[in-house]
Amino acid sequence: MQENECKGHFCAQRLPCVSFHHRNQEQTGILDTGFNGFAQLPSWNRDFSKPARTGYSSLANGTQSATFFVEETITFAGRSVTGLVQYPSGLGSSVLLGMGFLKQFKLKLIVSPLNNLVILRQDD
Question: Three-state SS string across the chain, please?
Fold first, then answer.
């Protein structure tokens, strides 16, 4: 592995995942290239002391979901970036890291399920 890259893994559902820190807690998120946002976390994980905007997110099946949007900082590979974190109003939701996450951290995603390989490389 090169100096400017980090290794992810395939989670139990065989989806590409990486570990990151949010409010000093390590979490694992699915790298979802179909999600344009920065990050999505379960609503129970939201810090209610921070101001939130309310809006709707369009899901892959075409439905809309009420969502809270909060500016928060995520730390990945020793770097911290602030972005708009989405908290869907439903009780259960997956932890997702989207294209906004890759863009704001300036990362390229390399995935090879056949070789069990998930790599995030700095895109300078």
Answer: CCCCEEECEECCCCCEEEEEEECCEEEEEEECCCCCCCEECCHHHCCCCCCCEEEEEECCCCCEEEEEEEEEEEEECCEEEEEEEEEECCCCCCCEECHHHHHHCCEEEEEEHHHCEEEEEECC
